[in-house]
């Protein structure tokens, strides 16, 4: 049972008649805990009884744990909650660049929502990054509650304050073109400019919506498989691409966050919604068959030597094709290079994935199939009840096929790369 005892002050090595009171109580493991510095016996006893009450209802937090700094626990959290390589690297980057400079030496028990919310409003970064930093802090604080360092996470469920200044309210300039709109015609022109291998990567991303890593990880054994599904009195058959893995490029970190260099490796897809079969429209199936016939490498979209693209290397290919380039005169050791007019400045692979989702909305793809094709997990109870039907699948393929041929007609094209006749068989 909690009790109090005197603690006499010492001066010049001698015990004086002055004293304070120390509370003594039994901790959960049976050992005796203590807290000193109380002015009266009653205050010490009340404090000790309160600790034993909290212990009895399972809400007691060891004061020594409560004083643990955020930086210390954050490193413990990161070493015991290993995530996929890129996710782990992103978490460390946010900790080191934004969170730890402010909160590393602050005791866990001293962190309040008011201070965190005030801090995030002063961060000199994009608003979405602010939100991710606060979310990561909240995740770590919740883990601290589970580990017995805190009784409650003060950040949980709180809505952060947004900056409403004129600068923040002003519309942000689009990264792609003038209004962010990507036309199928733009995709075809960029694909034609890049040539068969690289151009098909661009075209497939724009019309099938791969993530960057999923396109790199696509193996030829997963391309142009066959979907068979009962359809009325017969059977629905169409070619598919099976997405089961992706290449991840990230900075590898050790248990304590030490940098171990960049890695590029195959990993399983991001989540269960990302592992999927995507129906392929006829025009793209034709191009893929031609591509696989003369492509010597196991993965479908790689560098000419068969290695996966690095983001920086791909950017050096993609940017001139979209943004344009100046003419380069021939000189010793340097070949002639023709000038390219801009097609759609700022176009990137993420915008191409967005085009696919936009086209699905344009042609009226039903929600169960739209989420499946994009690799998104549909929210809500409907995902357990609604499934794509063959009619939905055929409508999607017909719609994408029509969009492609309409764009080809606008560009007055019948072939791509001057070698493949894509005339539809009537």
What does this entry look like structurally?
The protein is 42% helix and 18% strand. It is of the alpha+beta class and 426 residues long. It folds into 3 domains: 3-60, no CATH class; 70-161, Orthogonal Bundle (DNA polymerase, domain 1); 184-246 and 276-326 and 339-421, Orthogonal Bundle (hpI Integrase, Chain A). The strands form 4 sheets. The protein has a 3-stranded antiparallel beta sheet with strand order 1-2-3. The chain has a 3-stranded antiparallel beta sheet with strand order 4-5-8. It is elongated and about 100 Å long.
Q: Quick one: how many beta strands?
A: 10
- Strand-pairing-aware structural class: alpha+beta
As residue ranges, the low-confidence spans are none
Total DSSP helices: 15
Silhouette? elongated
CATH architecture of the largest domain: Orthogonal Bundle
Largest sheet: 3 strands, antiparallel
Query: From N to C, what is the helix and strand string?
Result: EEEHHHHHHHHHHEEEEEHHHHHEE
CATH-assigned fold name of the largest domain? hpI Integrase, Chain A
Strand-residue proportion: 15-25%
Helix percentage: 40-55%
- Average residue-wise pLDDT: 87
Total domains, how many? 3
Distance between the termini: 91 Å
Radius of gyration based on Cα positions: 31 Å
The first-level CATH class of the largest domain is given as: Mainly Alpha
Strand order of the largest sheet: 1-2-3
Protein name: Integrase
Keywords: DNA recombination, DNA-binding
InterPro entries: DNA_brk_join_enz, Integrase-like_cat_sf, Integrase_recombinase_N
Organism: Streptomyces cinereoruber
